[in-house]
Amino acid sequence: MQETVRIGERTIGKDSPCFICAEIGINHNGSLDTAKKLIDITVDAGCDTVKFQKRTVDVVYTSEELAHPRESPFGSTSGDLKYGLEFDLEEYQEIDKYCKEKNIMWYASCWDEGSVDFIERFNPPCYKIASPSLTDDGLLLYHRQFNRPIILSTGMSTLEQIDHAVEVLGTEDLILLHCTSTYPSENEELNLRAIQTLKERYQIPVGYSGHEKGLQTTLAAVALGACMIERHITLDRTMWGSDQAASVEPQGLRRLVRDIRVIEKALGDGVKKIYESELPIMRKLRRKFT
């Protein structure tokens, strides 16, 4: 049993504040300027970290998929889109520099071994493994060789598949994220009680990666014990892009962080007690004392 995981200077898990990750992902739409604006709103909201996604396009996708017709601002094929959304080394160097200036952690979900090598040069505080990669044993083991904490999303996966992934990775420095992999997710398919199921089954920190519209259900995840929250963020949900509609805008992100911190205080430690503030009311209103 490992009740906490250390990421950078933050402890995630039992008796620790909720770790809040703002996922930029591909919502920068290939623009470094947009990425910096998204980092700015993350810092302004008080999040703990930002996350990107990294792919070696011709490894992750087949040539047939890349040639498939798909209109986008980058061209007329799926390949034009996929290549257009990928930042290169110079752009990630600028992101790394900008996050350091803003004093905020960043890391990425890497969809192939070459992308892990690419991000490793930036000495990330941890790695995120996306739900589609949960069944890729080779990629799981490739991440593990760098001895960094791992955050694993569990969308589109059975308990048996999660069992296997946890066996491959081991439970040391591992955080699971309950997740439903639709964009946006319907409320009736969020199954937030699965957070407790995963906590009881694996005895490690469990958080929540949400793709729903709105904030209420993400706040409910915190109340149900999620030690970490990950939500996609955007400058405007009407922007072009497949993830924008399931993302949180700047004002909503500020509210989300604020309300998570309120809920944390309100949850308390679970020990029933009489507070000093209650004593005057007790003396005034209680007729009998035992």
Can you describe what's shown?
With 290 residues, the protein is an alpha/beta fold. It has a single domain, classed as Aldolase class I (TIM Barrel, Alpha-Beta Barrel), CATH 3.20.20.70. Strand 8, helix 7 and strand 9 form a beta-alpha-beta unit. Helix 1 packs parallel to helix 11 and helix 10 runs parallel beside helix 11. The longest helix is centred in the last third of the chain and has 18 residues. It is globular.
- Give the overall form: globular
Characterize the largest beta sheet: strand count, sense, and whether it forms a barrel.
8 strands, parallel
Low-confidence stretches: none
Q: Over the alpha carbons, how many angstroms does the gyration radius reach?
A: 21 Å
CATH superfamily: Aldolase class I
Number of helical regions: 12
End-to-end Cα distance: 42 Å
Indicate the mean pLDDT. 96
Q: Output the helix-strand order.
A: EEEHEHHEEHHEHEHEHEHEHEHH
State the strand order across the main sheet: 7-4-3-12-11-10-9-8
Class of secondary structure makeup: alpha/beta
Helix content class: 25-40%
Oligomer: single chain
In the CATH hierarchy, the architecture is Alpha-Beta Barrel
